[in-house]
Amino acid sequence: MHTNLVKKFCTPPVSEITNIDTKLLSKARKTEISFEGNMLPVFTWGEGKTVMLLHGWGSRASHLAIMARILVQAGFRVVTFDAPAHSSVKNNTLKVTTNMFEFGRSLFAVANQTGKIHALIGYSLGAATSAFIVSGFLKMAKYKISLQKLVLISSPSSIDAMIDHFSDNYNLSPNEKTKLKEEVEKEFDLTILDYSVGTALKNSTVDLMLIHDKDDNEFPISNVYKIHKDCRSATLAITEGHGHHKILLDRNILNKISDFLTTN
Question: Predicted confidence band at 90 (pLDDT cuts at 50, 70, 90)?
């Protein structure tokens, strides 16, 4: 059972679903899959090799629709979905809390019904989740997904970095931050410092691309350099002036992702 601190840590922010969100998904083929007692909306565009997209914390499938459009134009089939406790659909009844491990299990469930996956693109928490799933790391070992290419956008470098961001966001005192770490370790039966994205991908054979903005105020640029230190063969793309969120709208970066996915 979540403590108050852990529950807060596991409760994503909820933002209003706008008409723009609805319009962005209007041309997608919509299905649902059952996942751990809930239904997950799944959105698919195009034909060709399959690229899966995983959104971030407090985000939604519609936020990745422009990226999907670019990839469809490049000849890919694109699949994304609303992770647990997140929604692009108005009046959708949601569970309140979720976590990275549930994100990972939901990704695995959708992938299992999607067929062969060529590439996976994860954003923010979705990026870290994607790294741990693709590498079959520790608690994600049973949910490993095989694919050729992985793109991580605005990724935290570790669970520790996620807790740092949360603590700064909610102005936790040093004692509260320490308490949160202890409670997260107990709640999820893990050691926080074990969960490093770079460590997870260090020996992976997947073709990796890392994208981050110099002005990211949620996960500073140091996060991507920590990952890259363990993954020197990765393609590294650094942007400037987009912060954590607008990077998903950078046409230059979207084209670079498309090129990366089409290169053998």
Answer: confident
- Alpha-carbon distance of 240 to 97, in angstroms, equals 33
Mind listing the pLDDT tens digit for each residue in 96-106? 999 999 999 99
3-class secondary-structure state, position 16: coil
Radius of gyration of the chain (CA): 17
What gap in Å lies between CA 199 and CA 145, rounded to an integer?
17
Distance of CA 35 to the CA centre of its chain: 18
User: What is the DSSP secondary structure assignment for residue 139, as one 8-state letter?
Assistant: G
88 in Cβ contact with 25 (< 8 Å): yes
pLDDT of residue 137: 98
Q: Would you list the domain boundaries of the chain?
A: 9-155+196-208+226-247
The pTM is what?
0.98
Q: If you ran DSSP here, which 8-state letter would residue 142 be given?
A: G
For residue 250, report the phi and psi dihedrals to the nearest 5 degrees: -75, 105
- What's the one-letter identity of residue 174? P
H helix intervals, 65-190: 65-73, 100-112, 125-134, 159-169, 174-188
Q: Quote the tokens at residue 131.
A: 């790294």
The Cα–Cα gap between 134 and 84 comes to 19
Q: What is the pLDDT of residue 124?
A: 98
CB 215 within 8 A of CB 241: yes
How distant, in Å, are the alpha carbons of 20, 65, 116, 226 from that of 53?
19, 9, 14, 23
Instruction: Write the CATH number of the domain with boundaries 9-155+196-208+226-247.
Output: 3.40.50.1820
Distances (CA, A) of 34 to 11, 14, 19, 84, 249: 21, 22, 26, 11, 31
Residue 231 sits at φ, ψ, to 5 deg, of -130, 65
